[in-house]
């Protein structure tokens, strides 16, 4: 099972006020709710490899652009 599938499963359990397994005690339901909150926080505070590569590419491109602009300014200095 992928993490995304697991996330959706836990999300459904929380919405229904349930937990996985046969023991549907309030204690385990609260643990499920707590763990789901933690999972959502991870989604909010992390980035994927693809997002990271985009950030690196953009930083590199910006750095190159600024470097070229600096070189142009140096060339046309009076």
Concise synopsis of the structure shown:
The protein is mostly helical and 78 residues long.
Strand fraction: under 5%
Number of DSSP helices? 3
Could you give a short account of the major beta sheet?
A: none
First-last Cα distance: 65 Å
Identify the notable features of this structure and list them briefly.
78 residues; mainly alpha; 0% strand
Structural write-up:
By secondary structure, the protein is mainly alpha-helical. The chain is built from 3 helices and no strands. It is rod-shaped.
Which secondary structure elements does this structure contain, and how are they paired or packed?
Elements: H1 3-16, H2 26-45, H3 49-75
Helix pairs in contact: 1-2
């Amino acid at each position: 099972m992928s993490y995304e599938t697991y996330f959706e499963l836990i999300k459904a359990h929380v919405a229904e006020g349930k937990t996985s397994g046969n023991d549907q005690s309030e204690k385990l339901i609260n643990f499920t709710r707590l763990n789901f909150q933690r999972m959502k926080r991870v989604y909010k505070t992390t980035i994927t490899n693809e997002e990271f590569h985009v950030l690196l590419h953009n930083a590199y491109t910006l750095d190159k652009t600024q470097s070229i602009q600096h070189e142009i300014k140096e060339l046309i200095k009076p």
